[in-house]
Write a sequence for this structure.
């Protein structure tokens, strides 16, 4: 069982570095950040780039794992992203995890002047994005031509510190995405079933997560992979429970225990941001960080 946090890139570094260091002091397994150009209600406020933020965090911390939840093809290209990730893995001394997903219809989808992709188009891009990125991070030189992406004599020397490459945490719930997680992931990420967020119950949400884990297992079985090789990561805040697990240590322990029993192996909670969707009591957040796993073990 692991407990991690997400620190949104909304802070000038003079303040932000203290939050990343505090995450390490609290003993979190990993500290992630969102990889967006802007995001929902934060659109008209400060929002910094994920890769520079993680690079700075790598120099401000010593052992905590760092990563994205999640990077997507919406505004990233595998060739340039691979170069950034190899550099980031080097700066961090091999502490980077790439959370990667298909993206959505948010602001990223049109910020470069393009029309938003349909769900099928997002899945088509994702189906090329992940395998190409896998090869770019493991091969010193690559030429590859696909329908959505190409690489021509792309050089990635010396490669990642972590071998054969940095781990992928693949966010997916649909059949094509789950196949990518089974084939390329070292972890799988879910936020639950978005269709249940507004009107579902916590029980229905847990049933949906159980079903997702079963379908991930089936995708692994198709290629002869043991599903226990993949960590199962739950990013909180998007289930019908909403902010209730952050109301107290006992509430979180109950929430986490029920999800660990389903097969989730890592739970990620948001670092509190006052006057936002992720507002929470800092003292409760720190109590969860330092005491929850002890009660669950």
């Amino acid at each position: 069982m692991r407990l991690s946090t997400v620190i949104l890139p909304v802070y000038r570094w003079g303040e932000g570095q203290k939050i990343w260091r505090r995450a390490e002091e609290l003993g979190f397994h990993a500290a992630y950040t969102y990889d967006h150009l802007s995001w929902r209600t934060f659109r008209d406020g400060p929002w910094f780039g994920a890769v520079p933020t993680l690079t700075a965090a790598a120099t401000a911390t010593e052992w905590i794992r760092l990563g994205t939840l999640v990077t997507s093809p919406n505004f990233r290209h595998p060739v340039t992203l691979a170069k950034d990730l190899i550099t980031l893995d080097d700066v961090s001394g091999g502490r980077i995890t790439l959370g990667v997903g298909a993206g959505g219809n948010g602001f990223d989808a049109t910020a470069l002047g393009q029309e938003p992709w349909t769900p099928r188009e997002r899945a088509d891009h994702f189906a090329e994005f992940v395998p190409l990125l896998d090869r770019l991070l493991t091969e010193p030189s690559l030429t590859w031509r696909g329908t959505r992406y190409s690489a021509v004599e792309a050089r990635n020397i010396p490669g990642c510190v972590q071998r054969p490459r940095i781990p992928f945490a693949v966010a997916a719930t649909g059949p094509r995405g789950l196949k990518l997680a089974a084939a390329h992931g070292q972890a799988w990420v879910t936020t639950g079933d978005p269709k249940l967020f507004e009107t579902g119950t916590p029980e229905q949400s847990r049933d949906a997560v159980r079903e997702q884990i079963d379908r991930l297992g089936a995708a692994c079985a198709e290629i002869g992979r043991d599903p226990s090789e993949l960590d199962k990561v739950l990013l909180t805040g998007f289930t019908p429970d909403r902010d209730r697990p952050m109301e107290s240590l006992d509430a979180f322990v109950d929430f986490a225990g029920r999800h660990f029993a389903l097969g989730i192996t890592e739970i990620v909670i948001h670092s509190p941001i006052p006057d936002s969707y992720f507002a929470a009591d800092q003292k409760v957040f720190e109590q969860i960080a330092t005491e929850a796993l002890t009660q669950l073990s």
About this structure: The first strand starts at residue 2 and ends at 6.
